[in-house]
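Extended Data, panel c. Modelled sequence:
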Amino acid sequence: MQLSEITPVAQDYLKVIWSATEWGDAPITTTGLARRMGTTAPNVTDTLKRLAAQGLVEYTPYRPVVLTASGQRYALEMVRRHRLLEAYLVRCLGYRWEEVHEEAERLEHAVSDTLIERISAQLGHPEVDPHGDPIPSATGQVHRPAGAGPLAEAEQGEYVVVRVSDHDPGVLVGLRDRGIAPGAHLSAGAGGVFGPVHPGGHQAALAGEEVRAIWVVPAGRTASPG
């Protein structure tokens, strides 16, 4: 079975199931899938049963969903498409990083493998998308920064942003306006106050939802793949 033989809805489910655990969260449940997909739990159950019949997921009622080896391979193909399209939209078409998610969602089902690989070559085979999420290789390898963790759990010190969640476009707008993106330096101060480091020592506080969206590595540590 080829990726093109899987329905767009199934492609979306596989991508969401894989992405749910990418940064260390627990496997997604039927309820979580219903929330993410904007549908009802019974509809999710019916879809998961079909995916299980195709050998793409392991589904047991009332337990989190797990991808099979085949399901993970197709999920990674979809994630690769999505993130390369986001990178292309930002770098070549002038989109802002808060604008690309929905556009890539629409395009990822229509593009061919040939076009995706040409986009990758045109961009110089990028390893991350505009938000810092790793772009799986053509062979399904995923490399994350070693030692990366949520800013919300960071101890006092200096950090470098490696990833910003694209879940909330409004948060992305606010962070963009203050120059906070992958590669930016942040400081975790006493009392859990976080903010961008500016010349002269000025530090702007971040709101709670902004802090929760950011992943960092300690400053001075090379963000090598992990």
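The CA atoms of residues 146 and 222 lie 8 Å apart. This feature is highlighted in the accompanying rendering.
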